[in-house]
Design goal:
four-stranded mixed β-sheet, Peroxisomal Thiolase, Chain A, domain 1, binds acetyl coenzyme *A, alpha/beta, five-stranded mixed β-sheet
Length: 321
């Protein structure tokens, strides 16, 4: 029904990163496609951007916060361990009728949330659901580690999903998968019950994201390609039927490989990685909002969304707008 996004004003460019770690604009651009990211200022919270993105999505949908039955926030960088960031969003919006909860599926979180919203609506548990992807990855990024710090940005994107009787529109299908055996390729060791806060764990930098980039890259290419291919096949569709591919924006080379696998040409692939970096769960809803506002995805058109992230988790969604 509506889309919105909100990102911090402060920018971190490749040139800025050249001054922080041993890297270069050329390396970052050719290896990832990234040029600039938005980074939250001290005092800005994940829920600030999540709430603003949702407010904009509600406005776009012509709805009020009081219309929301459920708020789902996908995030691995919420305001606090608990309560959920969704509860802060509920309060900021004054969404008095809404249930609120978070889901943690890292970069695939938005697709997981969309699937959940679809299920809640289909089973009559809700009529109007906000699905939000919101991250402040800068808060768990080690800015002395060049292999990760150039990759991540902050921001939030939101969509409003609502019950419709129109058989031509809506969430056609979602596909979700996971493989927890590979978690050590992308994770944050500290902060949970496994490694609680202590002087020692802070000194050992256990509260920063860790990633084996090369390994993650290989799995991401395979899993995103598979998720895109499978969901099309089981709905008797091909890449030719897709008006716009909205892949998780982790690396331009992963995006290109995914598009090639389902034979979708570059002009039907949405890319904004150069402006935001990898914003994890926020990346697809930010892209979706921009694509809608730019007229790249119009009513009646078919969108294919595909994501891969920590867990590992991956998945895809087919949506007719
Ligand atoms: N600047 C300059 N050189 C660098 C940098 C940098 N920022 N980072 C690494 N290098 C060097 C390495 O040290 C290495 O040098 P060596 O050959 O002398 O050892 C060389 O560049 C190549 O490193 P690789 O890691 O092989 O580079 P690769 O081409 O794989 O690109 C990248 C790295 C961008 C991280 C890529 O692997 C990637 O995008 N991985 C997937 C990330 C992803 O999809 N994450 C999923 C979701 S994230 C989430 O869920 C939160």
């Amino acid at each position: 029904m509506g889309t919105g996004h909100a990102v911090p004003e402060k920018l971190l460019t490749n040139a800025d990163l050249e001054k922080i770690v041993d890297t270069s604009d050329e390396w970052i651009k050719t290896r990832t496609g990234m040029e600039v990211r938005h980074i939250a200022e001290e005092g800005e919270k994940t829920s600030d951007f999540a709430a603003e993105a949702t407010r904009r999505a509600l406005e776009d949908a012509g709805l009020d916060a009081k219309d929301l039955d459920v708020i789902i926030v996908a995030s691995v960088t919420g305001d606090m361990q608990f309560p959920s960031t969704a509860c802060f969003v509920q309060d900021k919006l004054g969404a008095k009728q809404a249930a609120a909860f978070d889901i943690a599926a890292a970069c695939s979180g938005f697709i997981y949330g969309l699937s959940l919203a679809n299920g809640m609506i289909a089973t009559g548990q809700a009529e109007t659901v906000a699905v939000v992807g919101a991250e402040l990855l800068s808060r768990i990024t080690d800015y002395t580690d060049r292999s990760t710090c150039v990759l991540f940005g902050d921001g939030a994107g939101a969509v409003i999903v609502r019950k419709t009787d129109d058989p031509e529109r809506g969430i056609i299908d979602t596909y979700l998968r996971s493989d927890g055996s590979l978690y050590e390729l992308l994770y944050m060791p500290g902060g949970g019950t496994n490694v609680p806060f202590s002087h020692e764990s802070v000194d050992k930098k256990l509260f920063y994201l860790r990633m084996e980039g090369r390994e993650v890259f290989k799995y991401a290419v395979t899993a995103m390609g598979e998720a895109a291919e499978l969901i099309l096949k089981r709905n008797d569709l091909t890449g030719d039927d897709v008006d716009l591919l909205l892949p998780h924006q982790a690396n331009l080379r992963i995006i290109d490989a995914t598009a090639r696998r389902v034979k979708i040409p570059p002009e039907r692939v949405y890319v904004n990685i150069q402006k935001y970096g990898n914003t994890s769960a926020a990346s697809i809803p930010i892209a979706l909002d921009e694509a809608r506002k730019e007229g790249r995805l119009q009513d009646g058109q078919l969108a294919l969304m595909v994501a891969f992230g920590a867990g590992f988790t991956w998945g895809s969604a087919l949506v007719r707008f």
